[in-house]
Every structure is written in C-alpha cells, then in structure tokens.
Amino acid sequence: MLFSPKETKLLSIQSICVFCGASQGHREVYRDMAKRLGQTLATEQIELVWGGGHVGLMGCIADATLAAQGKVFGVIPEFMAERELAHPSATEMRVVDSMHTRKATMAERADGFIAMPGGLGTLDELFEILTWAQLQIHQKPVGLLNVEGFFNPLLTMLEHMVAEGFIRPYNMQLISVAEDPATLLSIMRKHQAPQNDWLDKVQLQRT
After folding, report:
1. How open is the CA angle 40-180-150, to the nearest 5 degrees?
2. Which of 10, 45, 136, 167 has the most Cβ atoms closer than 10 angstroms to its Cβ?
3. What tens digit of pLDDT does each residue of 165-179 get?
4. Is 5 exposed, middle or buried (0-12, 13-18, 19+ CB in 10 A)?
5. How far is 73 from 93, CA to CA, in rounded Å?
6. pTM: predicted TM-score of the whole model, two decimal places
7. May I ask the CATH architecture of the domain 15-193?
C-alpha cells in the first residue's frame, strides 16, 4: 500500500503585527518595501496590527494598507499619543498606559508577526515575541522581511549563538525569512512550531 505524505495544514492568518522603524532609514528601498507589505496585506485581506505611529516606516506601511482599502489596528502608549505621533486615519486606535501593555496588546491581536528594518525598538519587539515562542507562550509564526539582506548580520549572530550553545538549534525554526512580502506570508502559513522539550527537562530536573 502506498502512503501519501501528510499534508501541512496552512495557518489561517487574519492579522499580522508588523514591527518596523519609526525612522525611514537612509535608503528608498526600505520605504518601498513597507509600502509593498502594506499593499500585500490589504490585497490578502489581512489586518495590519502595528505601533500606531504616523512617522517612519510605521507611517509608510499604515498609509499603504489604508490606500489599498485594508484595515489597520494601532496600539500606542499614552505618552506618544500626547506628542501627536498617533496615525490620524487608523481603522482603530487603542491608547494604552505603557510600552509593556502595547506589546502585549499587539501580540494578543495578531495571528503572526513580521519584522521589517528598524532600530532598537524593532529588535526589542522581535526578540520578546521570539522568546515567548521559545517558551511556548504562543505558537504563532514570526517572519523577517529581509530587505536586501538587512537582517543577514543578525541571522549570523543567531547562528553563532547556536554554535556556542546558547540557542538550541531547533529554535531557529521559529523564524521564517524571505525578501518579499508574498513569499514570506506563504512560508509563515506553513509554520509548525518546533518540538521543544527544554521545559520538560527543566521540570524533570526539579523533581
């Protein structure tokens, strides 16, 4: 009897949280890719969840999503809203009390996460959501939109951390990487959380 390989069930992604810079960067390619991602989300009827700002790449992706008739859900801390940094045309804007609440609210709303080029805030958001995935707090896909190799040095550093024994090799499966939005979303829909026995081993060591 012949057995066909088990088909991978595609994830249903209705909303994507995008982490990206509040600056636009020095090169036009970053702005162009933010616009492409926003247009792709709108075309595929995926709600954009983002930090609520109208500046930098944050503003570019929100503007592009809205221009393509997509929905955008912003989450912004009160101190930023008071500085008039909130996007004025968001489909829905939630003002929260802190950066911690902001990240938790975005994580709860989203079915997956994409990091674009950005700075310290982008890395903070990316690594927190990856840490939560590592700890099995969630099993949502996490993607890097690797615009012209922007994240290559970061990926090299992660591989170094694996080689030095600080990241388990299977946890590299938590990260999907592609250079264009449509391909990245396709990969993320096929995401399967790696089998992680670390927490079980820790529990056994305590008993």
Report:
1. 130
2. 167
3. 999 999 999 999 999
4. exposed
5. 6
6. 0.91
7. 3-Layer(aba) Sandwich (3.40)
